[in-house]
Amino acid sequence: MENFILTISFLLIGLLLQRLPQLPQDAAQTLNLFVIYVSLPALVLLKVPQLEFSRELLVPALMPWGMLAVSALAVLLLARALAWSREITGTLLLLVPLGNTSFLGIPMVNAFFGEEGIPYALIYDQFGSFLALATYGSLVVAIYGSQGEKPSWRTVARKIATFPPFLALILALALALGPDPAAIPAPVTALLASLAATLVPVVMIAVGLQLSLRLNREVLAPMGLGLAIKLCLAPLLALLAVQALGLEGLAARVAVFEAGMPPMVSAGALAVVAGLSPKLTAAMVGLGILLSFVTLPLLFQLL
What we know:
47% of the residues are buried. Helix 1 packs across helix 10. The protein has a single domain, classed as Na+/H+ antiporter like fold (Up-down Bundle), CATH 1.20.1530. By secondary structure, the chain is mostly helical. This is Auxin Efflux Carrier. InterPro entries: Mem_transp_PIN-like, Na+/solute_symporter_sf.
């Protein structure tokens, strides 16, 4: 509970900072870049080598792809039944399957499961959500987008290969699979721990700085259905799946919890750049984050 209160407090600080005229307009983006290039890679290098490799790691690695398939199918069926426009359909195909499993997911996993759950959240995010954003997200933009160049597979591969947290994950896995996973010198470990500790406050303050709630009647129905799938249906299906397969342990619980994260902020930015529905995007991302502070504690009680 203490970690959860701290997480909300950081979010509120970000909301209050929105009112400061002295704060640069790109402050949130600067904080996000710090997280991508410093905090998250440090956390990956610190936590992943501590993993004990077993079959249970397949759960957080494969769960996001199962959730993507189910969520995308649900959106396509609803789009056909309700005759949604291409812009609405494309927006929901980005924001419903892709969850905020890094910027919001890692702080929330830390708040509810403690540091022991973070490595599994990192696996879920890097092998699932991030790769899905780069591959599936690019495919959706190519099909439904109206702006920007159509991404080639070479461009997608280059983005993946140069993404700092992903590079850190490859290095961390190499260390974990090496003869001595604890071979990182103590001063380096101390440095990584200090940098990794900045992730939760910096991320949540940045989320607070960017949080906006813009509801529009035109998007109420698709927004409501999209968030119902993302915050309720997807995690419940994930929970039923792990129970049906007899999967237990922290890895399975974290994977189900991550499946209930609200829409990914980066996917929202991609939707806007692609010329999809900006009103629906803003409403899905903003309201999704707010509602997740209610749905995630409820989901945790089911685990």
